[in-house]
Amino acid sequence: MTPSTLLDSRAVDASPGSVVPLPVVHATPTASVQGTLALDLGPRLDPPEPEIRARPGDSARLDVVRVDLVRRRRFEQHAARIGAALVEIVGGDRPVSQVLRWTTPEVYQDLARRAHLVATTAGRVPGGGDVQQVRPHLVAAHSSFVSERCAEVSLHVRYGQRSRAVAARFELIRDRWQVSALEFA
């Protein structure tokens, strides 16, 4: 008698609501990898990887295209200056007209709008020379060249005890690096 015929004969004899014991055909071993995600539930015995801090020149590993060191350094200095100016404009410390040559029209309009909104909530005139109590400070800038004519920069900006991230996309337009996209987080 096979287990399926045994199960069928007991199911016929069982009355509704009664418990029918099922035979154990074979025990299924429990594996350390379960489910469709293949999660390894076993203990990790290898030592953790050490935390690696960014050092100057490390952002070159993030490039999609290779860029020589001199060009990279010039671009990173330019991007850090423009990035510091952008956060000071949004904070109301600088007039937006200072970055007219270094931004596309869309980014320029967005900066002007942001500066106006921040200034009106603080009861000031944007770029009017009023200095904030807490001024933004650029902590770090990391760049990645996406192509010969395009680079992306992430900025770490500190406002007193708070930090913000700013992402900017620079494009070489008419032989000048201009900010073509800007995101504040």
Task: Describe it.
This protein is of the alpha+beta class. The chain is built from three helices and six strands. The strands form two sheets. The protein has a four-stranded antiparallel beta sheet, covered by helices on one side. A two-stranded antiparallel sheet has the order 1-2. Strand 4 and strand 5 form a beta hairpin. The longest helix is centred in the middle third of the chain and has 23 residues, at 69-91. The N and C termini lie far apart (69 Å). The relative contact order is 0.13. Mean pLDDT is 77; it is low at 50-54.
Strand order of the largest sheet: 3-4-5-6
Order of helices and strands: HEEHHEEEE
Strand content: 25-35%
Number of helices: 3
Choose one word for the global shape: elongated
Oligomerization:
single chain
**Mean pLDDT over all positions:** 77
* Model regions low in confidence, pLDDT < 50 over at least 5 residues: 50-54
Helix-residue proportion? 25-40%
Gyration radius, in Å: 31 Å
Main β-sheet description = 4 strands, antiparallel
SS elements, strand count: 6
Look at the helices and sheets and give the structural class. Answer: alpha+beta
Q: Report how far apart the termini are.
A: 69 Å
